[in-house]
Amino acid sequence: MDRPFGLLAELTHACPLHCPYCSNPLGLAHVRTELTTREWRRVLTEATELGVLQLHLSGGEPLLRRDLVEIVRGADALGLYTNLITSAVGLSPRRAEQLRAAGLDHVQISIQADEPGLSDRIAGTPSFGRKTAAARLVKELGWPLTLNVVLHRHNIDRVDRVLALAEELAADRIELANTQYYGWAWHNRAGLLPSRAQLERAEPVVRAARERLKGRMEVIYVIPDYHSRYPKPCMGGWGRQQLTVVPGGDVLPCPPAHALPLPRASVREHSLAWIWEHSPLFRRFRGTDWMPEPCRSCERRELDFGGCRCQAFQLTGDAARTDPVCHLSPDHGIVAAAVRAADEVTAPRDDVLVPRPHPGRSG
Ligand code: SF4
Ligand code: FES
């Protein structure tokens, strides 16, 4: 069996931002259910024993955990490469220096757009100025900086200016990630899905920037899979390379798997090794034996693993079907209809977007 390479630690669902494309679940975990510092220490020790090398600290907003520095220090002592995935709201010079001293290796900051008006509107709170200041601080402290920009109907036409901002901030890497429709993003899909014309305008801009910035800034473009012929090899295959631990201790093959009707597995009841190797949840879609046609006899089955289980569930109600993004899927019409509907909307409409709330105020 493969060993997991990366662990995504969702430390909290609390967040100062309200992005409508958030992939956190609609039923956000309340702060009082979160794993304690001691529980995280055990999880990270078990993760290293299992072979994990990279730790991605995420949320919600991980800076809202008072023990973040302690968690990073513990991870560093275990030899893990640590990446902080943050909105940067709350990354004061003092906190940044503490994290640097604790051994944090890398910082990834989300930005919502290239200018304050739109960025703050998408984030649902004034934050653009704090984000750019924090990005400069990250570079001053000598960290590698990744900017992550989730693309959708409201900002994709500004991708040239987003790239210019990343250049100005001397980012080492930019991830232009077309929205993945899970959690709040799924809830807001009609208001977020870009039209084909928008994507066709953005793609040459990204290609040209990638060429121009070669050797200075890595430009990653996460493909908009609703508009692709084949699905993405989600998570590199179910239970194959990655695992996610959510704030309350459940372990998942990927963050949106919380929505699937499968038995839960928690670090509060089992070791991480047992969950990875033996839990029904991780075994359910591992490998290719579970596949239906057309995947079962398809030559791409070990390239994309039949696509995304969470997307198949969301679109068809059955996680064991071929991802409807695939043009060979018998359910492909569902995706084609959503894309056609997006093409018919002529202007972005903020009013159809539901902002992600704070935990405790949601379902
Ligand atoms: Fe991938 Fe299945 Fe489509 Fe083949 S039929 S390309 S394996 S999703
Ligand atoms: Fe869960 Fe793709 S996000 S399998």
Can you give a write-up of this model?
This protein has 363 residues and is an alpha/beta fold. The protein has 14 helices and nine strands. The protein has helices spanning 37-50, 68-77, 93-102, 116-123, 128-140, 159-168, 183-187, 189-192, 196-212, 272-278, 280-284, 301-304, 309-316, 332-344, and strands at residues 6-10, 54-58, 81-86, 106-110, 145-151, 173-178, 218-222, 242-245, 251-252. A nine-stranded mixed β-sheet has the order 7-6-5-4-3-2-1-8-9, covered by helices on one side. The protein is globular. The model has no long low-confidence stretch (mean pLDDT 93). Residues 230-231, 294-295, 298, 300-301, 304, 306-307, 322-323, 326, 328 line the site of iron/sulfur cluster. It catalyses: [PQQ precursor protein] + S-adenosyl-L-methionine = E-Y cross-linked-[PQQ precursor protein] + 5'-deoxyadenosine + L-methionine + H(+). This is PqqA peptide cyclase. Catalyzes the cross-linking of a glutamate residue and a tyrosine residue in the PqqA protein as part of the biosynthesis of pyrroloquinoline quinone (PQQ).
Notable characteristics:
single chain, 363 residues, alpha/beta, 9-stranded mixed beta sheet, 14 helices, 12% strand, globular, binds iron/sulfur cluster, binds FE2/S2 (inorganic) cluster, iron-sulfur, iron
SSE map:
Elements: E1 6-10, H1 37-50, E2 54-58, H2 68-77, E3 81-86, H3 93-102, E4 106-110, H4 116-123, H5 128-140, E5 145-151, H6 159-168, E6 173-178, H7 183-187, H8 189-192, H9 196-212, E7 218-222, E8 242-245, E9 251-252, H10 272-278, H11 280-284, H12 301-304, H13 309-316, H14 332-344
Parallel strand pairs: 1-2, 1-8, 2-3, 3-4, 4-5, 5-6, 6-7
Antiparallel strand pairs: 8-9
